[in-house]
Structure to design on (377 residues):
């Protein structure tokens, strides 16, 4: 049974939370809140603001409370920024955030200026190339991962070593950060986009000069928008595709292109304690461990790295013009409509997904099971 379906017997009030954490609604369940693009934008702003607020509060507390709260606030803040980038800006590049071309450009330019991300035209050109030649040597994301030392066929031990080196590599950090500086201040096009970047810089410096909040800005904004944003981007990108599946070939069949992406679903089946012979303590231990993993492993992954609709990234490549804000239900509908052959999935957490994405030995995605009309309601 699919891991999400094993959770069907859990209390109904918990099901929306489980749908968010796993990225998969129960088959046949009804959507309680229809998401719209604006809600995705608001969610990103709220999460970013909440992370900054927690960090600001931490600065008023003793150091032994300040340090853990800052360490908590940084990835949350960066996760909100990532939501604005990889969900909101991403959909503007497909002209799927607003109904007008100009509206998509405006939302993208404002958001990317605030986050020091590439201007709209450059970003859109590179992203459409990614869709035209996914995982090839024309794909900027492929070249980015190759520059960090990623390669196929590593053992888990070898990959974990690579991951540690990449995450803490000054070279990786500086290369990423300097490209953002160049894109915003040295080669930004058109002229209005450069003016926006320099205007934001001038306003920031003026504000900090007046308030004296240099340290606060450094800790609450600069650190998450640089180090944590970039590290979380690396971890996300590593699992975004099965990068090395077809040796970075440019010309692929539709079936091959479908295999390059997979649903990155978070979680595991509920403990099977019925008839196991375990006593009360054994059953309680199994369930406690399961809930702790859902709360402390999978939920933070969803909040900070695998944000928004990125769980169903395979749906985005199969049907880029779909109702992306409600992609978990759209994907289920596609499975029920007989299109399961185009979808693959992997369950687990961050490590499971990056193992699959990088062809680590003995790790792979599996075909998604079709939903029968009964399951789909």
């Amino acid at each position: 049974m699919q891991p999400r379906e094993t959770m069907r017997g859990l209390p109904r009030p918990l099901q929306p939370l489980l749908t968010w954490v796993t990225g998969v609604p129960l088959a046949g369940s009804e959507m309680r809140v229809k998401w719209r693009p604006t809600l995705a934008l608001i969610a990103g702003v709220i999460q970013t603001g909440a992370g900054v607020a927690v960090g600001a509060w931490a600065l008023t507390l003793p150091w032994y409370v300040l340090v853990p709260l800052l360490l908590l606030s940084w990835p949350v803040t960066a996760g909100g920024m990532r939501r604005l980038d990889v969900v909101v800006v991403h959909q503007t590049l497909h002209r799927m955030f607003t109904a007008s071309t100009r509206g998509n450009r405006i939302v993208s330019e404002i958001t990317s200026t605030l986050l020091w991300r590439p201007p709209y035209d450059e970003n859109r050109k590179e992203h459409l190339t990614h869709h035209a030649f996914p995982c090839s040597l024309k794909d900027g994301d492929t070249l980015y991962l190759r520059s960090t030392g990623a390669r196929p066929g590593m053992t888990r031990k070898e990959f974990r070593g690579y991951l540690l080196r990449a995450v803490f590599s000054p070279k990786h950090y500086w290369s990423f950060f300097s490209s953002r500086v160049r894109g915003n201040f040295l080669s930004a096009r058109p002229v209005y986009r450069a003016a926006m970047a320099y205007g934001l810089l001038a306003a920031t410096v003026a504000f900090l000069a007046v308030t004296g909040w240099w340290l606060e800005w450094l800790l609450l904004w600069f650190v998450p928008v640089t180090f944590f944003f970039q590290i979380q981007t690396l971890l996300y990108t590593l699992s975004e595709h099965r990068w090395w599946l077809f040796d970075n070939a440019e010309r692929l069949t539709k079936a091959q292109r479908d295999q390059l992406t997979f649903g990155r679903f978070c979680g595991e089946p509920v403990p099977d304690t019925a008839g196991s012979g375990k006593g009360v303590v054994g059953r309680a231990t199994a369930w406690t461990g399961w809930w702790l993993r859902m709360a402390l492993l999978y939920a933070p992954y969803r909040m900070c790295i695998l944000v928004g609709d990125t769980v169903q990234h395979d749906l985005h490549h199969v049907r880029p013009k779909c109702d992306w804000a409600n992609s978990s239900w759209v994907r289920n509908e596609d499975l029920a409509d007989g299109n399961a052959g185009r979808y693959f999935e992997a369950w687990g957490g961050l490590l499971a997904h990056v193992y699959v994405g990088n062809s680590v030995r003995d790790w792979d995605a599996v075909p998604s099971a079709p939903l029968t009309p009964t399951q789909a309601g």
About this structure: The mean pLDDT is 95. The longest helix spans residues 63-93.
